[in-house]
Specification:
Blueprint: H1 16-21, H2 38-48, H3 50-56, E1 60-64, H4 68-80, E2 84-88, H5 113-123, E3 129-133, H6 139-142, E4 147-150, H7 155-168, E5 172-178, E6 181-187, E7 192-194, E8 204-210, E9 216-220, E10 233-237, E11 251-257, E12 260-263, E13 278-282, E14 286-288, H8 293-298, E15 303-304, H9 313-331, H10 340-355, H11 367-376, H12 382-401, E16 410-414, H13 438-444, H14 446-453, E17 456-460, H15 464-476, E18 489-493, H16 518-529, E19 535-538, H17 552-556, E20 560-563, H18 568-581, E21 585-591, E22 594-600, H19 621-625, H20 631-658, H21 660-670, H22 673-688, H23 694-719, H24 750-767, H25 778-786, H26 818-833, H27 856-870, H28 878-885, H29 893-912, E23 921-925, E24 930-934, E25 941-944, E26 947-950, E27 954-958, H30 963-971, E28 976-982, E29 985-989, H31 1003-1009, E30 1021-1029, E31 1035-1036, E32 1040-1044
Parallel strand pairs: 1-2, 1-4, 2-3, 4-5, 15-16, 17-18, 17-20, 18-19, 20-21, 27-32
Antiparallel strand pairs: 5-6, 6-16, 7-14, 8-9, 8-13, 9-12, 10-11, 10-13, 11-12, 21-22, 22-23, 23-24, 25-26, 28-29, 28-30, 30-31, 30-32
Helix pairs in contact: 4-12, 9-10, 10-11, 12-29, 13-14, 15-16, 15-29, 20-21, 20-22, 20-27, 22-26, 23-24, 24-25, 24-27, 27-28
Length: 1046
């Protein structure tokens, strides 16, 4: 994205009240700077930035109440990398505690909840000091923390603690989960500064013109649509002519359009605009004044709405939660499930509290909702703990850093649709079973619990989402025989292995698991959370190539499928399989602080593949290769050069070395420019530039520097001087083009030295050449490189430079006689081959971004930054280069937990086969925070006379049918089938006279003889696509047809 990766000016700002909160941090006491493990936290740094991570690494957090919510918050905060977490609790573990608190076991029953789990939480991140405490929450104790979370406290206790925290400027979060209902309150003090309200990169544009006068209309190049909005503030840089704009205070915008806007500024006294300029959004900080809990109860302000179908629900729950607390205070226990007397008292208390409010602030009373709240209050659901553990954990990160906008100040949520019709069920249905699931049974009932136990679930992926799903499944009792049924199973598959960078989000993995298969480790870890879960781990990728593993019988035996994937193509394939076999699919994904979930229900909703994001815009080839104007272009080029030089070219040479005669024959047969170019790369590696010593590798790296950053740039500016014009007379070097400057190698410049160091070491790796003792020292390598004799640049005339943005692929330049050049190269190659040792092979270097010791990112960052320096583009450090060139998806544990919690709330509904209006697809952005929940889109239905079908239908024809019998089947339904195909092969079409001969042939025979397909022994059918029309000749798109011939 052009010019959009820009630092926020306020990013480094620490406000007065943040200093106050940080008074106990090491960084405020002159201690050494916090060390940040960037290999571990690279995905988090992509979301938060280094400064925020360092602030968190100096902060201590108190979490009081180690129930399901408490352990979820603790997990997410510890993974985030704070300095210390104190787990506080005075309650003991009960059997029912195990239903959502995943780090408790039956052997912990009777122990203090915090003391029973703190060691397991400590394992998540050894860099965080985790302790357990039973201390009184007095003023002296609370003042040792930079944030306080209460997850299991009465309202009176929460108000008392908040008063202390508010007084001392300590951010405070009070969260309550009452079964399927939730409440979150935040108080971050009277003067809290949000340094970055949304975490998005500032919008930017490349200036094409600035009008002189008022209004000052700014036009930008039409490379990309501008994202500015009226009222935004912007700053300017690199403007030539009207230089007064450079460094000017932020200027307000108005009348914003896709490629222009007006400045709230009179430029008539400024110099005339000439050319150039970057305009960048300025993101100011924001001040927030929070009320105390005591004040906010009677004056709550605006609630954060999560579901527009429940517009009046937050106000009702605001008084309803107070009523439940009043019930607890009066009765000494929470309302009991399916207890009408308790529910009546909660309803009465709610009405009393509501009537005491000013009339304008009163809620609309829905007694049924209040009765469900009363029923649910004493229970606990793992998915609710996961969802709100993510949300509350994110609020703590905001409190410690000022990054992202806090919840201000109330959020209420319910998922009553996940429950059966509890108001019509007897108390016996919710009575304890004396199992770990009793807290959930109290909410959902014994029957639904038994259904969960018997589920056959396929989980695709065991990464960050997969780990959270497996934990949720274990807590919910899915495929757990002790929950009521013995025939359930969770099958999880993932062909990936564990890397260090996974450990900051994929909480089932530890450092000693690195290199092991994710699915295997995750399965064992899940059984440690709940030994009863029946789980099977596989290491197969779900794809067309593994349909022998995941065969028809496998898919037909599933109850539902849960995707935990990180790429669209894999999601689409699983989606197609679910549609084909008519299986529910629960889909989710995360991107930084954002997450989305989708529920796909057979014969009801549209499928995942029905809608998808537009493809990401790619920079034109000529921009990347000759006219970059942002660091993304430089890094795209750098990654391409790395792979071409160190992976593709050596791999091509190895193809030759494996079978020289076959390779040469293929090249000579092609005889074109592409074949010549391939051969040139092989000849370069094995003949002209073959390396036998490290000095050869160093010479190669030094000549690469010369070629890339001096010669090519000098040639480009020779071909197109700074004053060059186009055929229309316009300046050639106009925006977005940037005029480049050639670089001269300087061995004392660490960037230059690091480039040749990384290049030489990786070239040596390709040839299997040992590195000398001085190789790890970049400046020493640079000094050796400076001694090399590099030919001086001589400009050439007639060089063609691609300037057409529509040219999307670099084409090899044609020679006058490609075949003649190929013959000459082959002769050289054959002669050189005779000098090679028997069995000689090169070692291609496959790009690996997550190993900082392998010099891969050093070379890519060097390539990109030297190119950026050529074009006066701001350079980036190695981590930023890794994020962009490595195409790293920003990820944090909080969003992952929230996504899986939302999905599992939908899972309850799928099992109960709820109606369409019960389901919710969700987009959430924890940074804002924002929740957008909506009913899924219905599957489109087609009709023809009495027939109707949707994407979920597949017409199955029984028997080993002939073509004519298939045509007759359609004709009986007033459909005229005129074409039948299997894969790419046409089995029958009525326009071909010869195809009439096939009418009496078996379809199964034609599949083998015409389509060249063998139907596996385990499959009883094959699929064909039938094109047909109605009696009026209108084409109809009918379902896929399966011929069940066995």
């Amino acid at each position: 994205m052009s010019s959009k990766r820009t630092h926020t000016p306020v990013e480094e700002d620490l406000t007065a009240n943040q200093h106050k909160r940080s008074k106990n941090m090491d960084s405020q006491n002159g201690a050494p700077e916090v060390h940040l493990d960037e290999d571990l936290h690279s995905r988090q740094i992509a979301v938060y930035g280094r400064e925020v991570m360092k602030r968190m690494a100096g902060s201590s957090v108190l979490i009081s109440g180690m129930n399901g919510l408490g352990v979820e918050v603790g997990k997410n905060i510890i993974l985030a990398g704070v300095k210390a977490v104190t787990l506080h609790d005075k309650k003991a573990v009960e059997l029912r505690s195990l239903g959502a608190q995943f780090f408790l076991t039956e052997s912990d029953i009777g122990r203090n909840r915090a003391e029973a789990c703190f060691e397991k939480l400590q394992e998540l991140n050894p860099a965080v000091k985790v302790t357990a405490s039973t201390a009184d929450l007095d003023e002296a104790f609370l003042c040792t923390f930079q944030a306080v979370v209460l997850g299991d406290a009465t309202l009176s206790e929460a108000k008392r603690v908040d008063e202390i925290c508010h007084k001392h400027g300590i951010p405070f979060v009070h969260a309550q989960l009452l079964g399927a209902f939730a409440s979150v309150f935040t108080d971050f003090g009277e003067d809290f500064t949000v340094i970055d309200v949304d975490g998005e990169d500032p919008h930017a544009g490349i200036v094409a013109s600035v009008a002189h006068g008022t209004p000052a209309i700014v036009t930008c190049v039409e490379d990309e649509r501008l994202e500015f909005q009226d009222g935004d503030l912007v700053t300017f840089s690199e403007v030539i002519g009207m230089t007064q704009l450079n460094g000017h205070a932020p200027i307000a915008l108005k009348n914003c359009k896709p490629h222009s806007f007006e400045l709230d500024l009179d430029t008539s006294v400024y110099a005339e605009y000439q050319r150039g300029g970057i305009v960048t959004q300025f993101k100011p900080s924001k001040q927030l004044k929070f009320q105390t809990l005591e004040a906010a109860l009677s004056n709550p302000g605006e609630f954060l709405l999560t579901d527009f179908a429940k517009f009046e629900r937050p106000a009702l729950l605001h008084v309803g939660f107070q009523a439940v607390d009043a019930f607890l205070t009066a009765e000494g226990h929470l309302p009991r499930p399916a207890n009408k007397e308790d529910a009546a008292k909660v309803v009465a208390l709610t009405k009393s509290i509501n009537e005491a409010l000013p009339e304008a602030d009163r809620a609309t009373i829905d007694e049924d909702v209040l009765r469900v709240l009363s029923h649910s209050a004493g229970g606990e659901m793992g998915p609710m703990a996961a969802l709100f553990g993510g949300l509350v954990g994110q609020e703590v990160v905001k409190a410690l850093s000022g990054k992202f906008h806090p919840l201000f100040q109330w959020l209420y949520f319910d998922s009553v649709e996940s429950l059966p019709d509890v108001l019509k069920m007897s108390a016996e249905e919710f009575a304890p079973l004396n199992t770990r699931y009793d807290a959930q049974v109290a909410v959902i009932g014994r029957s639904l619990q038994a259904q969960l136990a018997g589920l056959n679930v396929f989980l695709v992926g065991a990464g960050a989402l997969g780990c959270e799903f497996l934990k949720n499944f274990a807590m919910m009792g899915i495929a757990c025989p002790d929950a009521g049924k013995t025939d359930g199973q969770v099958t999880v598959t993932d062909d990936d292995t564990i890397e260090k960078s996974n450990l900051s989000r994929q909480f089932l993995f530890r450092n000693w698991h690195i290199g092991s298969f994710k699915s295997t480790v995750a399965s064992k870890a899940t059984q440690a959370l709940n030994p009863s879960v029946n789980i099977k781990a596989l290491q197969n990728r779900v794809s067309p190539e593994t349909e022998g593993v995941f065969d028809d019988k496998f898919w037909q035996g599933l109850d539902l499928v849960v995707n935990a994937l990180d790429n669209v193509n894999a999601r689409l394939y699983v989606d197609q399989r679910c549609v084909y076999f008519g299986k529910p699919l629960l889909e989710s994904g995360t991107l930084g602080a954002k997450c989305n979930t989708q529920v796909v229900v057979p014969n009801m909703t549209e499928n995942y593949g029905a809608s998808r994001d537009p493809p990401e815009k790619q920079a034109p080839m000529c921009t990347v290769h000759s006219f970059p104007h942002n660091i993304d272009h430089c890094l795209t080029w750098a990654r391409s050069e790395f792979e071409g030089l160190l992976e593709k070219a050596p791999s091509e040479a190895n193809i030759y070395l494996t079978d020289p005669e076959k390779y040469i024959k293929a090249i000579e047969h092609a005889g074109d420019a592409s074949a010549r170019e391939q051969l040139e790369k092989v000849v370069e590696l094995l003949v002209s530039d073959q390396a036998t010593t490290f000095e050869d590798c160093l010479f190669w790296a030094r000549t690469r520097f010369q070629e890339y950053f001096h010669n090519r740039v000098a040639q480009l500016t020779y071909t197109f001087p700074e004053d060059a014009t186009t055929s229309t007379g316009a300046p050639f070097w106009s925006a977005p083009k940037r005029f480049p400057r050639a670089l001269d190698f300087d061995s004392l410049d660490r960037s230059h030295a690091t480039f040749v160091q990384a290049g030489a070491i990786l070239r040596a790796e390709v040839y299997g050449i040992p590195c000398p003792a001085y190789a790890p020292n970049a400046l020493a390598v640079g000094a050796e490189a400076a001694k090399l004799n590099i030919p001086a640049f001589v400009p050439r005339k007639g060089i063609v430079v691609e300037t057409d943005p529509k040219a999307d692929k670099k084409q090899p330049l044609h020679s006058v006689d490609d075949e003649g050049v190929i013959a000459e190269l082959v002769t050289k190659l054959k002669a050189a081959h005779l000098t090679l040792a028997p069995g000689f092979k090169l070692s291609p270097v496959e790009f690996e971004k997550d190993n900082d010791a392998n010099f891969h990112m050093d070379l890519i960052a060097g390539l990109a930054n030297m190119r950026a320096r050529n074009y006066s583009i701001p350079e980036v450090d190695k981590l930023k280069a890794k994020l962009i060139a490595g195409r790293i998806i920003p990820a944090i544990a909080t969003a992952t937990a929230a996504a899986t919690g939302l999905v599992c709330l939908e899972l309850y509904k799928v099992v109960q086969q709820k109606p369409m209006e019960a389901y919710r697809n969700t987009f959430a952005n924890l940074a804002l925070p924002l929740f957008a929940m909506a009913e899924p889109i219905s599957a489109k239905t087609a009709k023809h006379k009495e027939l109707s079908w949707s994407l979920w239908d597949r017409w199955i024809l029984e028997g080993d049918l002939t073509v004519q019998e298939v045509l007759d089947w359609f004709e009986a339904r007033s459909l005229i089938a005129y074409s039948i195909s299997c894969g790419p092969a046409l089995l029958y079409n009525n326009i071909f006279p010869k195809h009439k001969e096939r009418l009496g042939k078996k379809m199964s025979e034609l599949v083998v003889t015409v389509a060249k397909q063998e139907v596996p022994a385990w499959r009883a059918h094959f699929d064909v696509v039938v094109a047909c029309e109605d009696e009026e000749g209108n084409d109809l798109d009918v379902p896929l047809v399966s011929i069940k011939f066995r």
